[in-house]
Every structure is written in structure tokens, then in C-alpha cells.
Write a structure and sequence with these properties.
eight-stranded antiparallel β-barrel, 40 strands
């Protein structure tokens, strides 16, 4: 077995590999750029080597710098994680030439399967059903439009070396095909150093289901069942689960056997994933094979009990797989929510900055018999950089059933505290309560169909709002009693805490009566409904763990005048608790309106202006491209919302802008 391995990656996946290496008694070497000098993976590793400036194309994907770090530290093997160099055949070949083990497949398998165009051709030759498309290289935007017209819209424009949603666009007409080709080509060049593009038919109403395979160098290949990854936004996975709620045993077996056959055909070893599109009749079509560890691998580990990173290391060291296909059963259900530094209230645009608060839920067994796991690469006080992927953490839960796994995820998300940046916790929390998701009736179009106008926060059902109102009333009473005990008050001016209050939330006023005792409070609503609230919450605590009628309720709590800002299940509520007279007066107060910004194009996220597409005095039409802003390796084209004339351009290409900084003004 290896004594020392180098992890040619950063962030969450580097930390994940270090954990398993530590468990196996293997020393680890981290590499880091200037931006990651204080990163968690650097702190966790036994050694760390500096490899260059923040941009990945000057550090993490420069093979010579990684090779020098290997020589400097004497590492015997390299784990590439995912992204960066993980699917670069020339990197695997360089390691082979150096006599260093690559904890991944042979370079020949990466060459065969890592390239989307080549892999589709090989899959067709092997008799695997593939999605219709154009497999050749595309010279320019004109040719891209011509090919798209022939295939028929909608089409998917993809970077051949792509992954993680980078270099990928859906085009519904010729104009979008032209625009998408240019953006995909630019993103591919910046992210992967490879700007080759191909086009395929976009299958509507598909489900994205993938098969995890493991193979050793002794001829053993197994599949570890499937993961459903249909909840996607901009072709990037957001929520994954294992197994799929859609597959039956026959389809699962057929997909698994086909995935293994494909792996054997290219001499594959290590962990890999064969991705399929599955239609409503359970017909499946090969998409691609990812010749690396997948981001969502934890859900497979939770239902099989197999540590995939450990098996990758053992296979790279020449060991045989310790199990056969018949040993790999499905145990329970697992969910994964990807926590991204993206603001759901601003159409999921990237958000960068410092994590002023980062408190993930406690990992391990829960009181309900489930499991919580959080794979992360950040820490409180750390900074989210503009240079890399916006993922903060992968929150995973396990339960004996799908319903149990979802409930564990709901409570874990409500417990997860993140402040200082925009993040998608509210959104994934809302999805966990969405009736369509709960039923398992999902496709890759779920987010586009269910949130066509973007995400503006969840609307909680009346039953949960009543529980929140009761909890807020009980918490307010605790805070009021605390305030009566302030020292230094005037004599003969004792303050009495009353029993009658009005709770205002979600546009409604609810009159309540609070009867408190040593163990908690009984909150009675005007029509007679009662809720029993118990908690050890104290004023000033950001997280309130309560029990309402014996059921757990977890609230993120912030103080506002005469009440609380309460967040749970994707909702962000201002909850006021007032005396009846104060509530009566509050209803007479005028509402403060936000400023009118309709005549300005504001930068929706921190980023770099790549292109200004219009000039001062120019008339623009609705939907016309105005500017392109790049953040976290993604190009975002800002378009006109309505017809108008450009009055003034306030930003130029190359400028770094903050959120809501003015790019241009209209007449």
C-alpha cells in the first residue's frame, strides 16, 4: 500500500480524499494556489505545496507544477479528485512516465471515454443506444447553426472536455445556437484548455440516471446501482439521490450490466460513472462516461456501505475488489443537497465573500435512526473565491425509506447555518417540501417548470405557519421575561409580561393566548386550536430547536423590532409579536417601497465585465444582449428586459464590479 499520496485538487473533494487516506494510515500532500493559502484542505493535509496564482490555468491544471510537487514531496500516487486534471489523458500519461501511480483509470481508458465525442462513437460501436447528434468537430458558429437546424431544435451544445455544467447550453432556435456555441467555446477554453464543441438532440422530459461502476486490474467489474440526478439547474446537478424512485429492478439490472460491459470494453479500472438519459417508458440512452469520482458519490456510499475513495486507492495499488456483484445490495435511501455560493433570489447568480457564520449540522446517527453526513472544504471565517467552483458543501442524509431520508434532509437543512454570502440553502429546502419532488415525479426540467420566474422563497402551508406562529409567541415570551430582569431599573416600576399577543406573519394577524409553565408554553389561538411548545432556546441564539406538539421544529432566528426574522424550509419570514394595541397601531403604518431601478442595468453578482455589446445612444430590443459578466468560470449574458435607448455606459470590459453596481443607464 502507498505511504504517501498527493491530491491534485482543492476544496471539498481534497478534504474528502484526505479523510479516507488518514483512515488508511496514508500520508497526504495538498497543493494550493495563492487564493487557497489558508484553505481547509491545506490545513488538513500532512504536507502542502504552493503551485501558483489563483486562476486554475496558472496553477491547478498546469501539469508541470503538479509533477514538480510530486518530485518535491516523494508522493507515490496521485488522486485527481474531480474536475481540473481528473480526466486529462496527458496527466495520467505523465504520471505513468514518472513511475507514479494514478488513482484512476489507465490513460487509454481516459482517452477512450473521457472525450464525449469519442465515447459516443465507441458506445455506438458497442451497441449502446445513444442520443441523436453530430459527433464531429464543429468549426464555427455558422456550422453550429447549420448542424442544429439539421438535428432539429432543441439541441444541446456541449464542450467535448466538459463537466460540471461548464461549456454547456440548450438552444431552442438558430439565434440561441449561434450565441450558445460562442459562449460554450469560451467557457470550455477557460475551464478545460480545450474548446472543442459537439451538438446533440436535447431530449425533453428526461430523467438523468447514472450507474456507478468499480473495476480492478484483475478482471473484476461491478456496478453499485444507480443515482438519480434529475434536479438540475443550468445543467448542473443540485440534488441527487440513490436509488432512483423511478427504476424497476429489471431496468436497474440492464443499465448496470450495460455500464459494466462498456467499462470492460475500454479496459477500465478504478471508479467511474456511466450516465444515461431515461425517458418515461424507461428506455435509456448513453450520455457519457465520467472517468473519475463523481461529486455525488456519497449517496452511493451511504446505500452500499462501500468507501469508493478507499477502493480507488486499493485498486491503484494493485489489489482486487473485495466483493462480487451479488454482495452489493441496496440498503435504505440517501439524499444529497449541494450547497452552492449562489443567490437563489438573484436567479442563482454566483456570490463571493467571507463566511461570517458556517455551522453545519452534527454528523452521524440522528435521534430518528437516520444518518447525516456533510462533505465540505470551507470553514467559518474562510472566503469563497471568484476563481473556482461555487460549491460550499454536500449535505447528505440516509434513512430506511425515501420519505425518511427526505425528512432527515429537511431537518438538517433547517439546522445548517450559513451567513455572509448568498447561498442556495433556501432553495434546496423548498424542493424537499415540493409535492412533485416528494412524489418522485421529476425530470431534468423540474426547476425550469416549477420555478419559471425564478425562486422568490417558499410559501409555507398553513399547518407549518401555525406551528411557526406558536413557536414565535413562546420565544417572544421568553425574551420578554429576560427583559424584565434587567438590573438597574427604577424602584416601584415592575414590568408584567401579559398573556395576550398578536402574531403577524405572511400577511395575517393571529391572536394568541400563552399559558406558560416550568416545562414550556401552551399557545391557544382565537378559534381554540392549541399547540404545546417546548424548547431550551435563549435570546441571542441564532438557532432555535423546538418541539411543537411533540414534533421537532428547527428555526434560524434573527432579532427585528418586536419580533424575529425566521427562516425554515426555504421561507424567509418577518414574524412580529405585539400586544393587541401595538398590533392595531402597526396596521396603520405606511409601507416603505424599494427604490426604482428600472432604468438601470445593474451587475447581478460580483464579477468581471467580459464584453459590452451595445453603445451609448443605441436602441435595444427586448431580449437583446447588453453585456457579458464572468464569475466562477461561468459567462452570464445580461439581456434587455424591454425596449429602450442606452443613455450612458458606466462600465467597460475588464472592470470588476460588485453586486448592484451600475453597468449602464437607459433613457
Amino acid at each position: 500500500m502507498f505511504k504517501k499520496i498527493l491530491i491534485a485538487n482543492r476544496g471539498e473533494i481534497a478534504c474528502r480524499v484526505i479523510k479516507t487516506a488518514r483512515k488508511m494510515g496514508i500520508k497526504t500532500v495538498a497543493v494550493y494556489s495563492d487564493a487557497d493559502r489558508n484553505a481547509l484542505h491545506v490545513k488538513m493535509a500532512d504536507e502542502a505545496v504552493h503551485i501558483g496564482p489563483p486562476p486554475a490555468n496558472q496553477s491547478y491544471i498546469v501539469i508541470d507544477k503538479i509533477m514538480e510537487a510530486i518530485r518535491q514531496t516523494g508522493a507515490e500516487a496521485v488522486h485527481p479528485g474531480y474536475g481540473f486534471l481528473s480526466e486529462r489523458m496527458d496527466f495520467a500519461a505523465a504520471l505513468e512516465a514518472e513511475g507514479v501511480a494514478f488513482i484512476g483509470p489507465p490513460s487509454s481508458a481516459i482517452e477512450a471515454m473521457g472525450d464525449k465525442i469519442t465515447s459516443k462513437k465507441l458506445a455506438q460501436e458497442a451497441g449502446v443506444s445513444t442520443v441523436p447528434g453530430y459527433m464531429g468537430l464543429i468549426a464555427d458558429a455558422d456550422e453550429a447553426v447549420k448542424i442544429s437546424d439539421q438535428i432539429g431544435y432543441p439541441v444541446m451544445i456541449k464542450a467535448s472536455a466538459g463537466g460540471g455544467g461548464k461549456g454547456m447550453r440548450i438552444a431552442w432556435n438558430a439565434g440561441e445556437a449561434r450565441e450558445g456555441f460562442e459562449s460554450s467555446k469560451n467557457e470550455a477554453a477557460n475551464s478545460f484548455g480545450d474548446d472543442r464543441i459537439f451538438i446533440e438532440k436535447f431530449v425533453t422530459q428526461p430523467r438523468h440516471i447514472e450507474i456507478q461502476v468499480l473495476a480492478d486490474s484483475h478482471g473484476n467489474t461491478v456496478y453499485l446501482h444507480e443515482r438519480e440526478c434529475s434536479i438540475q439547474r443550468r445543467n448542473q446537478k443540485v440534488i441527487e439521490e440513490a436509488p432512483s424512485p423511478f427504476l424497476d429492478e429489471a431496468t436497474r439490472k440492464a443499465m448496470g450490466e450495460q455500464a459494466c460491459a462498456l467499462a470492460k470494453a475500454v479496459g477500465y479500472t478504478s471508479a467511474g460513472t456511466v450516465e444515461f438519459i431515461v425517458d418515461g417508458s424507461r428506455n435509456f440512452y448513453f450520455l457519457e462516461m465520467n472517468t473519475r469520482l463523481q461529486v455525488e458519490h456519497p449517496v452511493t456510499e451511504l446505500i452500499t456501505g462501500v468507501d469508493l475513495v478507499e477502493q480507488m486507492i486499493r485498486v491503484a495499488a494493485g489489489e482486487a475488489l473485495p466483493f462480487a456483484q451479488s454482495d452489493l445490495k441496496i440498503n435504505g435511501w440517501a439524499m444529497e443537497s449541494r450547497l452552492y455560493a449562489e443567490d437563489p433570489y438573484r436567479n442563482f447568480l454566483p456570490s463571493i465573500g467571507r463566511l461570517t457564520r458556517y455551522r453545519p449540522p452534527v454528523e452521524g446517527k440522528t435521534a430518528r435512526g437516520g444518518v447525516v453526513r456533510n462533505d465540505t472544504g470551507v470553514f467559518e471565517g474562510g472566503e469563497i473565491s471568484m476563481y473556482y467552483d461555487p460549491m460550499i458543501a454536500k449535505l447528505c442524509t440516509w434513512g430506511e425509506t425515501r420519505e425518511a431520508a427526505i425528512e432527515e434532509m429537511r431537518l438538517a437543512l433547517d439546522t445548517f447555518e450559513v451567513e455572509g454570502i448568498g447561498h442556495n440553502l433556501p432553495f434546496v429546502g423548498a424542493v424537499m417540501d415540493h409535492p412533485r419532488f416528494v412524489s418522485g415525479d421529476i425530470t431534468t426540467a423540474f426547476i425550469a417548470e416549477e420555478y419559471p420566474e425564478g425562486f422568490q422563497g417558499a410559501v409555507l402551508p398553513p399547518s407549518i405557519l401555525r406551528r411557526v406562529a406558536a413557536a414565535a409567541a413562546a420565544m417572544h415570551r421568553v425574551a420578554e421575561i429576560r427583559r424584565t430582569r434587567i438590573s438597574g431599573t427604577m424602584d416601584n416600576h415592575q414590568r408584567r409580561v401579559g398573556d395576550l399577543w398578536v402574531v403577524s406573519l405572511d400577511g395575517q394577524d393571529l391572536a394568541v393566548n400563552i399559558a406558560a409553565d416550568r416545562d414550556g408554553s401552551t399557545v391557544t389561538f382565537a378559534e381554540g386550536t392549541q399547540h404545546r411548545v417546548t424548547s431550551d432556546w435563549a435570546p441571542g441564539q441564532n438557532l432555535a430547536r423546538l418541539s411543537v406538539d411533540g414534533q421537532p421544529l428547527v428555526l434560524k432566528v434573527g432579532k427585528i423590532p418586536m419580533g424575529f426574522r425566521i427562516r425554515l424550509r426555504g421561507a424567509d419570514l418577518k414574524v412580529h409579536v405585539r400586544t393587541p394595541r401595538a398590533a392595531e397601531l402597526a396596521r396603520l403604518m405606511p409601507e416603505k417601497l424599494p427604490p426604482d431601478t428600472s432604468k438601470f442595468l445593474l451587475c447581478p453578482m460580483p464579477g468581471l465585465v467580459v464584453k459590452i455589446s451595445v453603445e451609448e445612444g443605441q436602441e435595444v430590443q427586448e431580449g437583446q444582449a447588453l453585456a457579458t459578466v464572468e464569475a466562477m468560470k461561468m459567462e452570464n449574458i445580461l439581456k434587455a428586459e424591454r425596449k429602450g435607448v442606452v443613455k450612458k455606459i458606466a462600465a467597460s470590459p475588464g472592470a470588476s464590479l460588485k453586486v448592484d453596481e451600475v453597468i449602464m443607464e437607459f433613457e
